[in-house]
Amino acid sequence: MNFSSVRIITDDVDRLVEFYEKVLEVTAERPAPVFAELVVPSCTLAIGHSQTAQLFGTDAVLSANNRTVIIEFRVDDVEAEYERLKSFVDHWVKEPTMMPWGNRSMLFRDPDGNLLNLFEPVTEDAIKRFKDRH
Fold it and tell me: pLDDT digits over 50-93, tens only?
């Protein structure tokens, strides 16, 4: 089994696509106006309009309603990413901070309120954990 993607359901696909294109520095693939995929080497972040939610069943998903999932991306330099993102991220949860498990992390919310964590393994143990991962 292979992990394929995480999909965010939103009422404003264009707004979220624009935000994530800036964060991830990739151009989204748009196979339909109500759907986009941002593909990076380690994963795909999909964004679907709330109109598509009915395909999954009534009330299966609700847009802008997530408070349980953190979308995480490993970066080479958290401080550099923080400087780059400050100009367009409106809601910071935590500025770059050292975590007890050896990662330097920063957390912020996308325009729909979904939580993102950009992190950099910095301790020897944290670096070892990620050494062979893509």
Answer: 988 888 876 778 888 888 899 999 999 999 999 999 999 999 99
Dist. CA 126–CA 74, nearest whole Å: 12
Predicted local confidence at residue 121, as pLDDT: 97
Closest CA to 10 of 116, 117, 110, 118: 110
Quick one: pLDDT at residue 95?
97
19 φ/ψ angles, rounded to the nearest 5 degrees = -60, -50
Q: List domains and CATH numbers for the chain.
A: 1-58 (3.30.720.120), 66-134 (3.10.180.10)
Q: Side-chain half-sphere of 19: how many Cα atoms within 13 Å? A: 23
Cα–Cα dist 15/130, whole Å = 32
